[in-house]
Write a structure and sequence with these properties.
Shape: elongated
Oligomer: single chain
Largest sheet: none
Organism: Tagetes erecta
Protein name: Transmembrane protein
Radius of gyration: 17 Å
Structural class: mainly alpha
Keywords: Membrane, Transmembrane, Transmembrane helix
Order of helices and strands: HHHH
Number of domains: 1
């Protein structure tokens, strides 16, 4: 499938599936860390390090999308 805008990557989605599955596992870990971090923030809002952990967890949750976009962009048309 080629789009009319010259951004055609027909097999990009299929080739990056193994990497996307790995990053999906990382995002599940990110969700668990995010929930624990939010609970710790509610218990003790003065802990600044917990906020940093929650931000890292959010990036882990977004990992599958970043991996798929990066890998697809590396495949020439």
């Amino acid at each position: 499938m080629c789009c009319g805008d010259g951004n055609c990557r027909p097999l990009g989605f299929l080739l990056d599936l193994p990497f996307a599955l790995l990053s999906l596992l990382l995002s599940i870990v990110g969700v668990i860390v995010w929930i624990v971090g939010l609970l710790l923030t509610c218990i003790c809002p003065c802990c600044l390090c917990v906020t940093v952990i929650v931000e890292i967890a959010i990036e882990l949750i977004k990992a599958p999308i970043h991996v798929m976009e990066w890998f697809t962009s590396k495949i020439p048309c």
